[in-house]
Amino acid sequence: MAESEPVYIITGASKGIGLETLKYFCTIPGYIITVSRSIPDELSQILNKNQKKICHFLGNIEDPEISDVIIETVEKRGGKIDALIHNAGLAPIAQIKDIDVDIWKRLFDVNFFSIVDLTQKALPYLRKAKGRVLFVSSGAAVKSKIGWSTYCCSKACVNMYTKVLSQEEPDIYTLAIRPGVVNTPMQEYIRNNCQNGFTKEDCELFKGYEKNKQLRDPKEPASILFNLAQLSNKVPADCNGEFVSIDDERLASFKTFVTPKP
């Protein structure tokens, strides 16, 4: 293993955007460290085919021991990180009157504090590579929605964290992306559980995305994450620290997959 080998970290790699991002990275040189709380069949097949290329940790991303073993692996692979992609997250549906504070804490442990912990531990290795930290955020960070308070608030924190990180760590490029409405298990969860807190109008809206074939293929945001993560690709400086839609013209050259129109 050469010391210059690229090292990439992807959280929430078991499905959706995280899984599609992993697939992209399997096509180029480099070592990939992944985390997920489950190993579905498709991920299992990828891991079996890439045993020398991928180091996968099964566990809860909010567990500090997970971030510790990730960093130990980084040190064994040359002590640098080219890109850290924060994708893991939960999006439960319930209204504020029904959400105990312990649920808020659990949600923030997954969606926000796991990011804080792993990023802080990764900073020396990101600085060494002049690497990149990429966050999968959400439109919910900037648009409130009845029944989604925990998700909205946690993603808003991610956006501000992105901004401050870019100011404090000028040698590390940071970006939070707004992926749009993507055909992932989260969308299926919303359709099946929206009655637990969403308005009737929002339930119809989210069910309509699938019915009317308006969901993006997860390969689309994954292609942007994949291309942004490669240090050989020059990134737009005016996006550093920002929350940017994948449809933003500044990211057009990084979107190498576009969801086919129905």
TrEMBL record:
Residues of the signal peptide: none
UniProt feature coiled coil, ranges: none
Keyword Membrane: no
GO molecular-function term, one example from the UniProt record: oxidoreductase activity, acting on NAD(P)H, oxygen as acceptor
Keyword Oxidoreductase carried by entry: yes
InterPro entries documented for this protein: NAD(P)-bd_dom_sf, SDR_fam
Alphabetized UniProt keyword annotations: Oxidoreductase
UniProt record similarity statement: Belongs to the short-chain dehydrogenases/reductases (SDR) family.
PANTHER family: BENZIL REDUCTASE, BENZIL REDUCTASE ((S)-BENZOIN FORMING) IRC24
Entry protein name: NAD(P)-binding protein
